[in-house]
Amino acid sequence: MVALLKAEVAEDAVEEAVINEENGHLPTITVKNEHWLACASLLRHHPEWSCSYLRNLAGVDRETHLEVVYYFINLSTKAEAAVHVKTDREQPSIASVTPIWPTANWCEREVYDLLGIDFTGHPDLRRIMMPDDWVGHPLRKDYEPLDSEV
């Protein structure tokens, strides 16, 4: 996967690649944010990888940055992989993969709502869990509720 992304997208597309032993030896890579959309499209459509199923995506607050972790499955080979994409805390933004994997739609909305990551190109990015007038993003580590009783 790393060799493919470096050859087909950009030599610097992959920041890190590891085998996550704690998660069933899951191949896990970190892709640079600016190359994410091209990498996602290639992983979805390339005949060898054919990551046709986006099982899940989750937002993570790492205190120094925010990131989204995508979990893929190739339904033909049953091969699984995870991809991390980092973004900064001040203006967090990652390209939406909803046009590539429609199941990302609600997951991206959830991450937007709870962590404040903007998914550029999302067809309907709005709050999904919190009321529209809610202030802040409650899963961020720097979140301070307006009412300490809540």
UniProtKB/TrEMBL annotation:
UniProt cross-references to Gene3D superfamilies, sorted A to Z: NADH:ubiquinone oxidoreductase, 30kDa subunit
Ranges that cross the membrane: none
Signal peptide extent: none
NAD as UniProt keyword: yes
Keyword Oxidoreductase (UniProt): yes
InterPro entries: NADH_DH_suC, NADH_quin_OxRdtase_su_C/D-like, NADH_UbQ_OxRdtase_30kDa_su, NADH_UbQ_OxRdtase_CS
MF annotations from Gene Ontology: NADH dehydrogenase (quinone) (non-electrogenic) activity
EC number, as in UniProt: 7.1.1.-
Top EC class of this enzyme: translocase
Domain of life assignment: Bacteria
One of the Pfam families matching this protein, by short name: Complex1_30kDa
Keyword terms: NAD, Oxidoreductase, Quinone, Translocase, Transport
Catalysis: reaction(s): a quinone + NADH + 5 H(+)(in) = a quinol + NAD(+) + 4 H(+)(out)
Domain NADH:ubiquinone oxidoreductase 30kDa subunit: 29-144
Job of this protein: NDH-1 shuttles electrons from NADH, via FMN and iron-sulfur (Fe-S) centers, to quinones in the respiratory chain.
Family: Belongs to the complex I 30 kDa subunit family.
Descriptive protein name: NADH-quinone oxidoreductase
Organism of provenance: Paenibacillus thiaminolyticus (Bacillus thiaminolyticus)
